[in-house]
Specification:
It is built from 15 helices and 17 strands. The chain is of the alpha+beta class and 392 residues long. It folds into two domains: 197 residues, Alkaline Phosphatase, subunit A (3-Layer(aba) Sandwich), CATH 3.40.720; 95 residues, Gyrase A, domain 2 (2-Layer Sandwich). Strands 11-12-14-13 form a four-stranded antiparallel beta sheet, covered by helices on one side. A hairpin with a 3-residue loop joins strand 11 and strand 12.
Length: 392
Amino acid sequence: MLDAFPYDYFSKKVINRAVSKIPEFKNKYSLKPSPGYENLPSAFSGLDSNNIDTLANYCFSPSQSNLRSFRFFAPILQKLPKQGLVRGISSRILRTLTHNQFIKHYGHLHFIPWNIIPYIDFSQKELLFGAKLYNSVPTLFYYLSKNNLSYEWLGYPIFKSDIAIVRSVKKKKRLANFTFIHISSLDAVSHKFGPNNKGTLLMALKVLEYTNEIILHVKKIHPGSKIILFSDHGMVDVTSYVNISRILQKCKLNIPHDVIPFYDSTMARFWCYNRKIKNKLINKIMENPFIKILDPQGCEMYQINPSEKYGHVITFLDPGKVFFPNYFNMSFETQGMHGYLEKTMQELAFLSTTDENKEFLIKNNVFLDSTNNIVWKTLFNIFQTFLFGERD
């Protein structure tokens, strides 16, 4: 998986020249990301995004929060400076309080404020790879285990860089029956500089170079391997920023006693302690023309389960706009973003494979249509077909 590699990159001559000699890029298709930030659960479970309930990575659930006991320390750390040496020291304290397994499974805590952390259930952020069940539904890994087939994940957090992944693969004399390789360096560069920056395109070429090295080695040690290439999303150029935290200030709402906010990059979500606070917040948000509130009609349009675990009030922005500052970036204004509810051409991901693999899939009733966006659950069908032959 090539993280953040847009389908529309193939319209660029420099990219097309780089992929022209790689057979796995022969048949290219657009892949429409799911609403929100998580696509892989659909790929590994075969369920539509609205059925697996993956709008956001972080949900409100104090009773299930891995750091609910942290609320005793949060008020103290919240008063510490947000920049400089003290911030670094407080981050180290937090890391000490959160055991290694937390970082391993859920990743870094980014800039989530200390006084918000105890109320958040981080399990939605847990690494999906290897999970036998997802929302009580069997995953690809369940079927692999049932058939005594091995699987391996090569990516973050096991590996910290793409070059480390390439080196690891090239040292292997044998791969697992199912090996998932995640090349991720393009994502960070695209966020910082935008998808059409010259440096971003150079990184995309480097990612293709890594990809080719891996493919050549896999073919060397396992001739006849079935290889599928895809990305998880594209990237949209950022045109403007919205500071939604000022709305809470204008409402004179206290955090976390009146409301608990969570500022995603393209969404802002709020849990309110009573209806009066909720209505007050909604009325103030509606004064801003750039912010939209997700209503029942919107949930139906975007195929979203309107669960309150994601917020009593869920707001979102049009493509190209970003909430800033947010809990994932406080230091600079990003130039590229993804995760919008409304998908544009820029945010489309891609899927590609060889002529031989395409024919094999068609023979086994998995049809790839270049005229439409392929849905994510098709990946699950592809994985199953490659591993087990014709599907039931």
